[in-house]
Amino acid sequence: MNKHIDFIIKNYHITIFILLYLSLILGFFLGENITQGPKFDFNHSSKQAELFENDFLYTFFRYDELETPSRISPIYILLIFGIKKIVLDIEIVRFILLNIIILNQTFFYKCLKICFHKKLNIEKKILFLLSCVIFLSPSFRSNAIWPESAMVGLLLFNISLYYFLKFNENSNNISYLYLNIFFLALSAYIRPSFAIFVIFFFIYSFLRLQKKSKIFNVIIFNCLLATPAIYYLFFLEIFFINIGVGGSKLDFDYLSKLSIILSIVIFHLIPILYYKRFFISDFSKKIDVKMLALTFLISPILILHFNYDINFTGGGIFLHLSNFLFTNNTLFLVLIPIITFFSLKLLEIDFKKNILILTILVLMVPQFSIYHKYYDPLVLILIFSILNFKIDKDFFSQKNILFLYGFYLTYFLISFVNSYFINF
Fold it and tell me: Is residue 398 domain-resident?
């Protein structure tokens, strides 16, 4: 008996993985739907797949004119359609996609090994444990249990990110760069918003290329992969991306949405703010005049341009908390200067890289309605891969890992209580 207990303790990372995986399987059979939208979205997607089954060509070439239109990529619908053709039962399709989406943890772990095991010699068990925290994300869980294009797209993006990091390790091996581009293209075909990450990958790949002349081959490869999408959207004019209900249609007034996006991103950066506690201690000892000046310059602009309608749903946890407690946006507006200050402090660590990634995170949501699932667990993955917050060995202490797990467990429990008991 003691030997079994010792084995479990010694392999704590595997134990946690099994328990969290089993919790997802349990959630699958119980129909867990904490964020509420995924079940509706998956049922809608399965109906779209039936349209392909009834008349493939008409559905594909009239996708934006269907009786039940959708902003979900037709490529993702075709994935559901293809799997269903083989297994016949839609519930088996769900289960297969759930287990495919779970591979996000595997590639997150592979990215962590490149970033922290090889560079900082962090123990693999700790990195594996860190990668498993995504299983506590309410968005990840709901969108895996009721498979949604965001998480399938995220998996392909994760694979793309892995090959980008491999290329950074060994820039002589240009095949890694081509694999990075290929899987990014696949992720964009499933979830178009991931396409904008080509800006970051292109810039930093160019900087790492040993032979700059190779960039022309990279550009041509990108263009070839993008051509079918460009032809479908702009030449055939099947612009399904603009389909939506109410506020979910395209809205390029990013200034009015910026405070919402920053609030969601900062929410997922709380474990890093906890790790970088010196922000608060420095602030208490010495006033950061530059950051305060920028905060008081930017915050009024964000407050004056804020016009998010919470009735369209989405909006992030801080906005919903404000409306739950005070039935208005007052608390959220009060929080904007704090959100702005910490955003600036985090950007300052590596301004050029971090501002580029933040800009991409803003631009990747062109529609009015903004949901946590757009950034969860994407922000967590970016924190430990291409965002630079100078995470050192001391982050991987037991205290910080416990805080990370405690944060996401609390987030899960709040979402669970809200979904089934409060609904604020």
Answer: no
